[in-house]
Design brief:
- The protein is α/β, with parallel strands linked by helices.
- The protein has one domain (3-58, 83-328): Acetylglutamate kinase-like (Carbamate kinase), CATH 3.40.1160.
- Helix content is 32%, strand content 20%.
- The protein has 10 helices and 15 strands.
- It has helices at 3-7, 25-28, 39-53, 81-86, 107-113, 123-149, 177-184, 208-219, 280-292, 306-312; strands spanning 19-23, 96-100, 154-156, 165-167, 170-173, 188-192, 194-198, 202-206, 223-228, 233-234, 245-246, 248-251, 257-261, 297-302, 324-328.
- The strands form 3 sheets. The chain has a 9-stranded mixed sheet with strand order 3-6-2-1-9-14-15-12-13, sandwiched between helices. Strands 5-4-7-8 form a 4-stranded mixed sheet. It has a two-stranded antiparallel sheet with strand order 10-11.
- Strand 12 (248-251) and strand 13 (257-261) form a beta hairpin.
- Helix 5 (107-113) runs antiparallel to helix 6 (123-149).
Length: 330
């Protein structure tokens, strides 16, 4: 257990957290284009999240919660106050936590300035810290907007603003009281990878994957879902025509992992994009393995597909499901 988790008091939640969802940066943004959102992937993700949360499971009238006005909008936002007043409740299981990656937001600013390496005595690093946070928090607002448009009562939360910090890039302070209080109040917290202060390095980048691992330790969700731009974890880069989808991975108590399905003759290659300051797929597998050791199943699958909807509902038993399940070997 991390030092931060040991410092954090154990919450007494009225209801267990059902799911922690990671919206991968590569899945919801266009990583080749600076600060560009993949609108269709984000919209479908939010629509599927609502469907997974719905008590009825059927399509319902959605009352949007984004009542703000964007610059250039021709009219005031429509607020259906009468319909909200007549509702007995939202009809949603809101016991979800959403964490999103940065994708084409933040990574450019962090890598150009070296924020992930630390050293706030450098004017470039200090400026990069500011620029990185402007970028990632702007993406967070857009994701909260998209969720709110689907009638999901979401609230954005930045790790830096909540006082999360690291030492040698390891979490040492991660107060989750605001997250827990928000869950109890019926909100869906939406966190993101962030630039944070570091006791040894001055500053660094805290990845969304590390955030999810800590929250899984603290909140003990029923399952965790990683939504990515590919169907799961492959034995080599998925662009390779010979790449094989790893359908089931088991993790031992010592943290070592083995491929259960399918049986492979060769080893597994893991590549990390040069601009990715958070470790790429290697970090995702290691963090997913750490979550699985807690006894929490992790589902990794492609965003905006029937497979992602099943994963969000916690139902991956379907024979035709495409994705990777990472679970404890116990």
């Amino acid at each position: 257990m991390s030092e931060a988790a040991q410092k954090q008091m154990n919450p007494t939640a009225s209801r267990p957290v059902r799911c922690i969802v990671k919206l991968g940066g590569a899945a919801i943004t266009n990583k080749g284009e600076l600060e560009s959102i993949d609108e269709e992937s984000l919209r479908s993700s939010c629509a599927q999240l609502r469907q997974a949360m719905s008590h009825s499971g059927a399509a319902e009238k959605v009352l949007g919660m984004d009542w703000s006005r964007r610059i250039g909008d021709p009219a005031e936002p429509v607020v259906d106050a009468e319909s909200f007043s007549e509702m007995g409740g939202l009809g949603l299981d809101t016991n979800f936590v959403v964490v999103h990656g940065a994708g084409s937001f933040g990574h450019f600013q962090a890598s150009r300035s070296g924020v992930h390496k630390g050293g706030l005595h450098s004017t470039l690093v200090k400026a990069g810290f500011v620029a990185t946070r402007i970028s990632v928090t702007s993406l967070n607002q857009e994701i909260v907007r998209a969720l709110a448009k689907e009638g999901i009562p979401s609230v954005g939360m930045s790790p830096f603003a909540c006082g999360w910090s690291t030492k040698q890039r390891n979490l040492v302070s991660a107060n989750a009281s605001q997250i827990i209080q928000s869950l109890h109040a019926g909100f869906v917290p939406v966190l993101h990878g962030d630039a944070v202060l570091d006791e040894s390095l001055d500053c660094t980048i805290l990845s969304g994957d590390v955030i999810i691992r800590h929250l899984a330790q603290l909140l003990s969700p029923k399952y965790v879902v990683f939504l990515t731009d590919v169907h799961g974890v492959y034995d080599r880069p998925p662009t390779d025509p010979n790449a094989v989808l790893l359908k089931e991975i088991e993790v031992d108590d010592n943290g070592s992992w083995s491929i259960v399905k399918p049986a492979l003759q060769k080893g597994v290659e893991i590549s990390v994009a040069a601009h990715d300051t958070t470790g790429g797929m290697e970090t995702k597998i290691l963090e997913a393995a750490a979550i699985a050791r807690l006894g929490v199943d992790v589902y990794i699958t492609k965003v905006g597909t029937e497979h992602s909807l099943r994963a969000l509902k916690g139902d991956t038993s379907w024979e035709g499901w495409l994705g990777t399940v990472i679970r404890s070997s116990k």
